[in-house]
Amino acid sequence: MVHIEIILPIFNELKNIPVLLERLDLIKKELKSEVSMSYLFINDGSTDGSTELLTSLHRSRSDIRVVHLLHNFGHGPALACGVENFQGDLALFMDADLQDPPEAIPEMFAAWKKGAKTVVAERSSRSEKNKILFNTFYYLLHKVAPTLPPVNFGTHCLLDASVIDRIKVLKEKNRYFPGLVGFTSSKIEAVPIHRLERHEGKSRVGLRGLINLAITAFLSFSSTPVRLVSVIGLVCSIIALTSGIVFVIVKIFTDLAIPGWASTMSALAFGSGIQLLCLGIIGEYIARIYDEVKQRPLYLVDTILENPVNKTLSKEDAIFVPRIINF
Ligand code: UDP
Ligand code: MG
User: Fold this and answer.
1) Rg of the chain in Å (alpha carbons)
2) What is the pTM of this model?
3) Mean pLDDT to the nearest integer, 177-193
4) Is the domain of 124 the same as that of 53?
5) Which residue has its alpha carbon closest to ligand 1 atom 20?
6) Ligand nearest to the CA of 212
7) What is the Å distance from ligand 1's center to 203 Cα?
8) What are phi and psi of 254, to 5 degrees?
């Protein structure tokens, strides 16, 4: 019997957890002849009652494990915690807001049975507000980062334990999860899904988080941004040199006065704007290098609520196992 552990990062999903579990339990029933399924919730510092709900779910069910993080670390670190604490043959990552349909799991599992080690849910259509923005992001990213898998997916994927072992080796702090999955997989099988709006509430990652993730994706899987800086610098130097030569020729051979203040100022402003832009791009790299050298753990664990069945411990023994992970 194959064991699938469903890994769910949670940040204030009180209203979504019961609906999600209900839908996942139906899939569990559907697959029960060939699959045993359990849940690993990574509670990323929720403050809306999700913490209490998860703790009580763990008490009443033997197929639920919970890692309570010390406070909110972000979606990426919560996924890294899922990778580190996973137990099973197959890991199924998905968001808890029902944007990733649980109903795709049987098809993903069928692809694994046919031999695929990495199966991702490809967002072939979306009914989200920022659809155009997302599609432009994926288009540009795949243009500049040819090593990334040409598949439009987020975190909804089914990974063989061998792939998880490879991801565990990657210790980078600025993590673009689909990129890490692509890097550690020889082949990616895609199952098309329609991505819906989140079931309840507003995005927990938010626009700022998404922009940050997009910058991480570009900077960690492509050197195009920093090369762009050199290209912009080169183009500006060529323009400056050519116009300098033209001005000298005009001055020597004609009586025409050099055009005045306004054009000089606009050229100056344009030049300094470009310089600041380039400095900003280089600054992004430096900020990320700083993050890496600090060697700070990606997340800190408060408590782990283990599954007594897995651990052969009494439930009381298994409830609080604090530990710090130096990722
Ligand atoms: N999440 C998390 N920590 C955070 C933000 C989000 O664990 O700091 C979880 C969230 O509860 C959800 C998943 O990550 O299960 C994806 O979050 P969200 O739906 O906000 O992302 P979006 O779909 O807007 O990109
Ligand atoms: Mg979402």
Assistant:
1) 25
2) 0.86
3) 94
4) yes
5) 204
6) 1
7) 7
8) -130, 170
Cα dihedral 148, 149, 150, 152 sign: negative
Ligand 2 mean position, distance from CA 206 (Å): 9
Statement to judge: residues 280 and 309 lie in one domain: no
Let me know if residue 213 belongs to a domain: no
Range of the domain at 113: 2-206+297-321
Question: 38-47, 75-84, 85-94, 188-197: lowest mean pLDDT where?
Answer: 188-197
Looking at the domain assignment, is residue 253 inside a domain?
yes
124 shares a domain with 153: yes
CATH number assigned to the domain comprising residue 83: 3.90.550.10
Decide: 15 in ligand 1 pocket, CB within 6 A. Answer: no
Closest by alpha carbon to 122, among 152, 94, 150? 152
Q: Take atom 24 of ligand 1 and give the residue whose Cα is closest.
A: 203
What the block records as the tokens of 257 is 């006065």
CA dihedral of residues 103, 108, 113, 116 (deg, nearest 10): 180
Question: Quick check: CB of 204 below 6 Å from ligand 1?
Answer: yes
Residue 107 pLDDT greater than 90, yes or no: yes
Domain assignment present for residue 211? The answer is no
Residue 282 lies in a domain: yes
Q: Is the pLDDT of residue 121 over 60?
A: yes
Neighbours of ion ligand 2 (CB under 5 A): 95, 97, 99, 198
Same domain, 260 and 122: no
